[in-house]
Amino acid sequence: MKNTTTTVAPMRGGIYEFGASLLRGAGQVMFQNNVWTGLLFLAGIFWGAYEQGTGLVAWGALLGLVAATLTGRLLGLPASDGAQGLWGFNGILVGCAFPTFLGSTAGMWLALVFCAALTTWVRTAFNNVMAPWRVNSLTFPFVFCTWCFLLAARAMHGMPPAHMATPELPAAVTALGRLPFGDLVEGWLKGLSQVFLIDSWVTGLFFLLGLLVADRKAALWAAIGSAAALLGAWAFGAERSAIATGLYGFSPVLTAIALATVFHRPTLRSSLWALLGIAATLFIQAGMNSLTAPLGIATLTAPFCVATWLFLLPRLQFDEQPKPDHSDWNGRQA
Amino acid sequence: MKNTTTTVAPMRGGIYEFGASLLRGAGQVMFQNNVWTGLLFLAGIFWGAYEQGTGLVAWGALLGLVAATLTGRLLGLPASDGAQGLWGFNGILVGCAFPTFLGSTAGMWLALVFCAALTTWVRTAFNNVMAPWRVNSLTFPFVFCTWCFLLAARAMHGMPPAHMATPELPAAVTALGRLPFGDLVEGWLKGLSQVFLIDSWVTGLFFLLGLLVADRKAALWAAIGSAAALLGAWAFGAERSAIATGLYGFSPVLTAIALATVFHRPTLRSSLWALLGIAATLFIQAGMNSLTAPLGIATLTAPFCVATWLFLLPRLQFDEQPKPDHSDWNGRQA
Amino acid sequence: MKNTTTTVAPMRGGIYEFGASLLRGAGQVMFQNNVWTGLLFLAGIFWGAYEQGTGLVAWGALLGLVAATLTGRLLGLPASDGAQGLWGFNGILVGCAFPTFLGSTAGMWLALVFCAALTTWVRTAFNNVMAPWRVNSLTFPFVFCTWCFLLAARAMHGMPPAHMATPELPAAVTALGRLPFGDLVEGWLKGLSQVFLIDSWVTGLFFLLGLLVADRKAALWAAIGSAAALLGAWAFGAERSAIATGLYGFSPVLTAIALATVFHRPTLRSSLWALLGIAATLFIQAGMNSLTAPLGIATLTAPFCVATWLFLLPRLQFDEQPKPDHSDWNGRQA
Question: What is the pTM of this model?
């Protein structure tokens, strides 16, 4: 399904191509250039959002995906990026984040569309900046733009920070509650669902299935990433409720897929490297939780981005063979 | 008046050349390499500072301008930069900021001179860093150095943070007061005056006139930038007093001039791009207000810098013709 | 002792070579590729740590040094870096910082080893990023990684922030106590000892001696850097207790050595430049004290890194001769 001549051909504006571009955009959040993955991800988002009683999150995701993808076409950015879903993956995350954290006002929806559109050219901007080191901006356009708007929401009555954490100075964890085994298992699957800011283990299963249809190794490493981070967070005494809701898992899931399957060919050495990357992501996640506490904003997927960059920039070579064929992520994105 | 052989010729240390270099430095804050613009800007600063009862701000501006410009000469930096006023524009802003936020002590004035001088080589440093992407550091040397000293003022009794905001965790805007039409008009002109941290609509008129004598399109876009940002801030329910004092306008004014007249030739498409840039600057301004609240420092012109970079780095081409002849800003600053 | 053929030859895994690599690593914190310097530095650390009643800091330093140096070998990074001690200098600082700020739990020691190891490839990552501008990441890998873990400690019960400052919004210095002359002299020597987070003037003497055996000019400039920063902090009314414990001195010490002896040949002009660098470091230190207050983390040596970059990036030339022969720091570190 990936990298066939059809998918890389320039988009001609047909409704089918546009739909495929959208679905691939959903899939690319976890590096999968695959329409069925995207469809299962969207299904998982809708299931989880309605299960949580926050159906607007799913519609926001769809709106952000469409806005970001259309923007790439309107700006005349390289069509091959659009065909591979690389215009939309930041936008769908913006669309998940806005209704999750902000009240549903006209201003919020307008800002969602603008912010999602913004990510498309901010991605081009960031990729241009990073091109000399052959690293990708990953989901950082989503993180950067959404941080701006979440912070702005506190200064703008028409876009109220209804569901955001109260800003407070970071305080140490002083006591740990119990964490039953069932919660651990749910937290493991929620580590996947929280990639799209969804708190539902069923959604996690949808996402795992979506990865499976595209790349079994990606599914495996997503599962490993969430499990390893959960165990690490548990061992180091992180807040139990955050573990149970998957908040220590979503960034390591992405780091694991990136380091083990996208940017290196899977070998024993690259697998160990990916495990170290998961561990680093865990501590960066904990650190960023403290860093952003005074601002009352979520870390989003910043820990994944930072950790992955720190593990790619040394340019360690683990085998002689070329990298896996994720041409869309391997340095041609300028 | 711009880019004649005389102005680009190496400075020979004459008093006339030095005076011209200073005036152009004032003008370059809004991208105008023009002595009359600089003269009108300085006149506006003096008028506004004394109208506000803070005459020291104007003298600080003059001192910072002189210190930064002399520094360029002492360090032997490329003389053509000095002749175009590119040594002084960060320094004059430092000179406006210090007496605005800090108490008038001997330490403050010493620090002002040092900080203004620092901006001259920090500009070289930042421009060197950004050269690979052919973007300019804009007013960020002023922002970065001034932030350092404003933060330092809280730790240094000899440079007291007398007029700085009290650090506080960001709180949401919960109620909006009335904003009479007259205040909106004043706020529109104050959007211009606040570029130099002056709260005076008369100063805004001086600045508009200063732009008019150099480049009518720059004047038009400054007016559009302030108006559009003011309306946007009003529509999204930003704090009314901040709107009325032009605090949502000054960064969009600079973004508008930069995107519509300096870095792109004015066309329909680049005008739409500039409008998007104004909108982005507005949200970044609101976001940075929350970001800097716990530190009790002003955003200065950082929102302008960030937004302009985000809109230049994708390197979108809007027409086939070369860029406007702002050679001083178009990538030769390394 | 420096740069002989022997030291640059690839490490062959012998115990002697490994020990030399460790000692040079200790010395490289102050840019000295010299085993005797490293030995005296380690002696000073052990003396000071036990004098303070925090002997674990010294054992942490040793552990961090070993972990970081071994990591370079395990990853197969260029052996010449290891032979010159460039793998270990960040790790030894991590090892000093962890027991200084965190409670001694199993989790803390595990995290120390991981963080120290991390600095070795983060240094490669940062040096790769900075290579186009021919600047070095200096001690920033230590700063960045340690910040992550110190922030993480507030979110992790198993790695308690036992000795960290309480997060608080920055408040202005409102009154200054007395500062007896004897405290000034001690503070001057503690400016050196605090480079390794040790609060002991005896350790400062050890460090001065360590510099003397390697490079008299480095010792001179370390002494000048600490003295000048102390006087500046005193004149600008910085907090007296911070001055007396050397907390305004350690970053300027490093800036002074770097600018006056490592990256420029000592001349009158480069000496003036180094003095300006010391002054800038002082204000950046004061500013970062306010910046990090809401997070309750120390600035570590970040002010040194930032100031040194700002003074190297303009690439001013002070004489026609080549740079001093610190080949390990002069841009070949990519």
Answer: 0.94
